[in-house]
Amino acid sequence: QVQLVESGGGLVQPGESLRLSCAAPRSIFRINAMGWYRQAPGKERELVAEISRSGSTNYADSVKGRFAVSRDYARNTAYLQMNSLKPEDMAVYYCYADRADARYWGQGTQVTVSS
C-alpha cells in the first residue's frame, strides 16, 4: 500500500506553533482532497482540516482561527500550520489524500503540547 510521508510533529509548549507536512509520491496523481485527522488517547479519530482540489478548506470548530491548511500542487504536498497550540491539541496526526477510487494515509506524527 502506497503511503504518504508525514513530518513536522514534535514537542512544543502551549501557545507555540508547528507545521506538519504531508507528501504524496508521484505515483499518486489526480488527488482530490488532502487533510488531517487526529487521535488522542482514549478518543475517537476526528477530522482536523481538509483542503479540496480547488483549494477550498474545512476545519474542525476547535481549530478554526488557529490552524491553516494549504497545498503545493507542484510538489504533491499539503501543509498544516498549527498556531497557538493547546494541550487539547495533543494527539497523533494522520494525513490523508483522496482520489476518486482510493484514500491514502500517512504513517502518523505525534504532536505533544506540554509545559
What secondary-structure arrangement, pairings included, does this model have?
Blueprint: E1 5-7, E2 10-12, E3 18-23, E4 34-39, E5 46-51, E6 57-59, E7 67-72, E8 77-82, E9 91-98, E10 103-105, E11 109-113
Parallel strand pairs: 2-11
Antiparallel strand pairs: 1-3, 3-8, 4-5, 4-9, 5-6, 7-8, 9-10, 9-11
Number of helices: 0
**Helix-strand string:** EEEEEEEEEEE
* Biggest β-sheet description: 7 strands, mixed
Shape: globular
How many strands in all? 11
Strand content: over 45%
Average of the residue pLDDT scores: 96
Distance between the ends? 38 Å
Radius of gyration: 13 Å
- SS-derived structural category: mainly beta
Which consecutive residue ranges, at least 5 long each, have pLDDT under 50?
A: none
Helix content: under 10%
List keywords for this structure.
mainly beta, globular, 0% helix, 4-stranded antiparallel beta sheet, 7-stranded mixed beta sheet, 115 residues, 11 strands
Structural description of this entry:
The protein has 115 residues and is mostly beta strands. It is 0% helix and 48% strand. It is built from no helices and 11 strands. The chain has strands spanning 5-7, 10-12, 18-23, 34-39, 46-51, 57-59, 67-72, 77-82, 91-98, 103-105, 109-113. Strands 2, 4, 5, 6, 9, 10 and 11 form a 7-stranded mixed beta sheet that branches. Strands 1-3-8-7 form a 4-stranded antiparallel beta sheet, with no helix packed on it. It is globular, with a radius of gyration of 13 Å. The model has no long low-confidence stretch (mean pLDDT 96).
